[in-house]
Amino acid sequence: MSFLVWPPEVNSSLIFDGAGSGPMLAAAASWDGLAAELNTAAQSFTSITSGLADQAWQGPAAAAMMQTATRYASFLNEATAQAQTASAQAQAVVSAFESAQAATVHPFAVAANRNSFMQLVMSNLFGQNAPAIAAMESDYEQMWAQDVAAMVGYHGGASAAAAGLPSWTTALQGLSGQLSGALTANPAASALTSLDSAASSGPLANVQQNIINAINAPTEFLFGTQLISTGPTPALGGNGTTGNVPISLYANTEALVNASVGTGSAVPLLVDTGSQGLVIPFQKVGGIVGLLQLGLPVSGGISGYSGGLDYAYLTYNAPVNFGGGLTTGATPVDVELFAWPTSLSSALNGGWSFQNFFASDGASGVLGIGPNATGPGPSIPTEHFVNSAFNQGVLINETPTGQYLQFGAPPSGATALTTLSGAPITNDLTVEVTPPGGSTTIYSNVPSIVDTGGVNGTIPSSVNASPGDTIAVYGPNHQELYYYVYNSTYFPTAVSSGELMNTGAAPFINFPAYISNDANTMTFYSSL
After folding, report:
1. Known InterPro entries for this protein (predicted)?
2. What gap in Å lies between CA 359 and CA 355, rounded to an integer?
3. How far apart are CA 223 and CA 98, in angstroms?
4. Euclidean distance between the first and the last CA atom of the chain, given in angstroms as a whole number
5. CA–CA separation, 473 vs 478, rounded Å?
6. Which residues belong to CATH 2.40.70.10 in the chain?
7. What is the pTM of this model?
8. Model confidence over 104-155: pLDDT tens digits?
9. I need a labelling partner for 74 at 20 to 30 A (CA). Which of 24, 36, 125, 445 fits?
10. Superfamily assignment of 248-391 in CATH?
11. How far apart are CA 391 and CA 243, in angstroms?
12. Pairing state of beta strands 331-341 and 276-281?
């Protein structure tokens, strides 16, 4: 594990930074309270239905309802037991954390040792400080060993608690199957299906999701594990030469693909041709425990995204799993530790965390796949599949006829419309601006970035355009990629003349596009 070789400066900071055991204690208390409520509900429900069965409930319909009620009471009892277990495991995590914190050297003590050591070294002109330096180094080594021992104990206790966490998904699926069976067997009870429909949509669904998010927060932070799963189960697959994975469009502009890193669950990643590398919060790779299981980081630093977000990260070599056998080899992944806004608008709109910043995109992380993009990651995960045939390139199909990514060779049998040299950064685009009732102005070789993650894109001041103008963008061979009425049917942000024009999602909504990793090109097709 990483903490076995991390110095005390790192281990001590990890254990003393953050909220401490308070959130987990609150979670334990909440789970205990929920268990008590569920137990009371189960006993009350059983008592009432048993009384009705002995008195007013008679006949086949009553017998079917009693059977369903018994199954529901059984589910309540199972949920009670699972909530009690969750409370006990949360208490175990608290005990493991507090024991580890008590056994860990305080960061101030480590810093004082290092400061004294540096002062002794700098003043050691004639070797007079050699004994004191040796004593400081001995103390430092003892701190190192003490921290490692504390973290080993913490890892063992937390891992044991995580292994004992119950699965709510199985219980909920069991309840769903029981109710479905009861409804199938008893048509008279089919009216209950309207309740299920109401609970899965509208305001009730929003309330349910907020409750589930609150329940999941503590264990997702520590372990990257949701007690109640909210993740999708996409149908994925691949053959010998290509591999397909479905995508979804958030707000009709941003493509999302589900993938997992390390012990984390599959989460939605923004498919971004405008950047390079995978960036994902540590909560989504398995939390603190999952981060430790990734091994030693190979690098780290500070990076950011346009729009007003900077973040600190560590880079780990880890596989990325798209499901269905589509897995990369160990590839550099930037794991975000914490983030902060770099602009007032970002600060006012959720830029105090990585996840909040990208919440408006529906994404938990960013998968940058642009071969000539400038970062922030060191490499593109989709160039490192275990099956090397998938590394040739990626087809992005955001059109209404089918929404998926296809890794591997270019599509066969499809008609290529135009090919851009450079992906995503290119000088091959031509922009034509036509004012209402006016003549057209042509701008050739406009420096651009063809960016799936650019939403509505940008337009530089070097392209003289005003709201209401019709703007058409062409590739080589005068192939129109998209057009719009400025600030009426498309809303690009105005930027200075020295910046790239960002196409945003428009060309990808109109046409499938294939990025060749080897040739650094982007080809648009008429259809697939």
Report:
1. PecA_C (IPR048054), Peptidase_aspartic_dom_sf (IPR021109), PPE_dom (IPR000030), PPE_sf (IPR038332)
2. 6
3. 17
4. 47
5. 9
6. 248-391, 416-525
7. 0.58
8. 999 889 888 888 888 888 888 888 899 999 999 999 999 999 999 998 888 8
9. 24
10. Acid Proteases (2.40.70.10)
11. 10
12. parallel
